């Protein structure tokens, strides 16, 4: 046990106690997160789709303003995209985060929101018009976030996060040892399925809240 804990520590694996290490040999199921675990956690905005009558600077500016106060893994990618393109991100007031759904606040005195399609719809935003584009991005494994101001949809952003090198081989090795691999994620089911297919994962649950 002492030798195993020492080797684990050198590999960056810390065990809470000896009993946890002993129980490891009996594990038959691995529940694994997607973002930052199966993926690198280095997200970037890969696709920008503006709604009719909205230009890219306006869409990215509102999105970046909302994400200035967010701790979500996708926030930094959106802020980077705005900075790289030279789009300003005005201060956001009345900021609120809805875990597993999105963020909202006031940008330039107007209410704005960024988050999932279903959540924005529940906020009274008319989200029709970009469904096909969103489906295409999700099929490529991109996470899609919608951006609105007031009740008007400004557009959507497709955020890509590369798969971690060696993840597919590691999961295959676990399966060969009889370990059931189960992916859990807050992402849309279509995006989750695209990532699962690339990694050979058969079982998953998507659109989970943090509590879920």
Explain this structure to me?
The structure is a single chain. The protein is of the alpha+beta class and 212 residues long. It is built from eight helices and nine strands. The protein has helices at residues 2-10, 18-24, 56-67, 75-84, 117-122, 131-139, 167-176, 189-199, and strands at residues 29-33, 44-50, 92-98, 102-107, 110-115, 143-149, 152-160, 180-184, 203-205. A six-stranded antiparallel sheet has the order 2-7-6-5-4-3. Strands 1-8-9 form a three-stranded parallel sheet. A hairpin with a 2-residue loop joins strand 4 and strand 5 (110-115). Helix 3 crosses helix 4 and helix 6 (131-139) runs parallel beside helix 8 (189-199). The longest helix has 12 residues, at 56-67. It is elongated and about 60 Å long. The two termini are 34 Å apart. The model has no long low-confidence stretch (mean pLDDT 90).
Key words describing this protein structure:
six-stranded antiparallel β-sheet; alpha+beta; 212 residues; 26% strand; 35% helix
Fold topology:
Elements: H1 2-10, H2 18-24, E1 29-33, E2 44-50, H3 56-67, H4 75-84, E3 92-98, E4 102-107, E5 110-115, H5 117-122, H6 131-139, E6 143-149, E7 152-160, H7 167-176, E8 180-184, H8 189-199, E9 203-205
Parallel strand pairs: 1-8, 8-9
Antiparallel strand pairs: 2-7, 3-4, 4-5, 5-6, 6-7
């Amino acid at each position: 046990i002492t030798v195993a804990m020492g080797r684990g520590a050198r590999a960056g694996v810390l065990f809470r106690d000896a009993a946890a290490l002993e129980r490891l040999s009996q594990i038959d199921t691995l529940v694994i997160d997607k973002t930052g675990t199966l993926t690198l956690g280095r997200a970037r905005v890969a696709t920008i789709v503006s709604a009719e009558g909205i230009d890219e600077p306006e869409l990215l500016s509102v999105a970046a303003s909302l994400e200035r106060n967010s701790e979500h893994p996708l926030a930094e990618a959106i802020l980077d995209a705005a900075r790289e393109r030279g789009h300003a991100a005005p201060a956001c007031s009345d900021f609120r985060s809805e875990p597993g759904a999105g963020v909202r606040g006031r940008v330039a005195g107007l209410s704005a929101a960024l988050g999932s399609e279903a959540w924005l719809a529940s906020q009274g935003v008319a989200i029709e018009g970009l469904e096909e584009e969103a489906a295409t991005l999700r099929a490529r494994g991109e996470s899609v976030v919608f951006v609105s101001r007031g009740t008007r949809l400004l557009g959507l952003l497709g955020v890509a996060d590369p798969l971690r090198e060696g993840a597919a081989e590691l999961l295959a090795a676990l399966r060969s040892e009889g370990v059931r691999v189960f992916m859990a994620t807050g992402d849309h089911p279509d995006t989750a399925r695209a990532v699962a297919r690339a990694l050979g994962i058969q079982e998953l649950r998507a659109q989970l809240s943090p509590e879920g």
